[in-house]
Write a structure and sequence with these properties.
It is globular, with a radius of gyration of 23 Å. Helix 6 packs across helix 8. Strand 4 and strand 5 form a beta hairpin. It has three domains: 78 residues, Winged helix-like DNA-binding domain superfamily/Winged helix DNA-binding domain (Arc Repressor Mutant, subunit A, Orthogonal Bundle); 76 residues, Arc Repressor Mutant, subunit A, CATH 1.10.10; 45 residues. By secondary structure, it is mainly α. The chain is built from eleven helices and five strands. A three-stranded antiparallel β-sheet has the order 3-5-4. Strands 1-2 form a two-stranded antiparallel ribbon. It is 60% helix and 11% strand.
């Protein structure tokens, strides 16, 4: 493969807002340069490796990662705390503890039905499942053959992107989760999330009280 394609592949990945698969990169190149252009998924992967070697040599703060079966530019993990300070996207889409609990059950047990989820959680999960569907973190995979033919749920590519995974098998094993939960950074992030939830709840309560007082004064 001609070295010029390294730059073309870099440009295509850079311009894509979502992970772009090798097949889409190849399709784009052949659309412009002709169907007889000789380029394979292995060529794309090799090109990405060479680009990352160049980025590493130049000590850049970013690299190309393989995620959700595609390629995407991302900042290196050592800068995550600084990026996280400025980022608001995760805050907008932050999941409650109950939603994370439900999502974890689906991720590790999929394909799984709502009755099975509720058996594990011990509570009704209608709201949590609807929330996760709205955020496109889970999707309906079909219906089970059991009584009543309940819907079957599984995770999506959006789930992989949200958690920075390339494939579902990259989920941490139970032993790894125990180690993560003991990590100081994890505990600090958990504390911040809990404090944010408390602050939001207080704001909601204040708005409710003020609204009630206003309605009472009108009467």
């Amino acid at each position: 493969m001609d070295k010029i394609y390294n730059s073309i592949i870099e440009a295509l990945i850079f311009a894509s807002e979502e992970p772009i698969p090798a097949s889409e990169i190849i399709k784009g190149i052949k659309e412009i340069d002709g169907e007889d252009t000789k380029i394979t998924p292995n060529d794309v992967e090799k090109s990405v490796e060479e680009l990352n070697q160049k980025f590493e040599k130049e000590e850049n703060s970013f690299h190309i990662i393989k995620i959700a079966n595609g390629y995407l530019f991302a900042t290196k993990s050592e800068y995550a705390k600084y990026i996280g300070y400025l980022s608001t996207e995760k805050t907008k889409r932050r999941l409650s503890q109950a939603a994370v609990e439900t999502l974890a059950i689906i991720a590790y047990k999929q394909p799984i039905t709502k009755p099975e989820i509720e058996t594990i959680r011990g509570v009704n999960s209608d709201y949590m499942i609807n929330t996760l569907l709205e955020k496109k973190l889970i999707t309906i995979k079909g219906r089970a053959d059991s009584l009543g033919r309940p819907l079957i749920y599984g995770t999506t590519d959006e789930f992989l992107m949200y958690f920075g995974l390339n494939k579902i098998s990259d989920l941490p094993k139970p032993r790894e989760i125990e180690e993560i939960m003991k990590d100081a950074d994890f505990l600090e992030q958990k504390r911040k999330i809990m404090m944010n939830e408390i602050e939001e709840k207080l704001e909601e309560d204040t708005i409710t009280v003020n609204t009630s007082d206003h309605d009472s004064s009108i009467e």
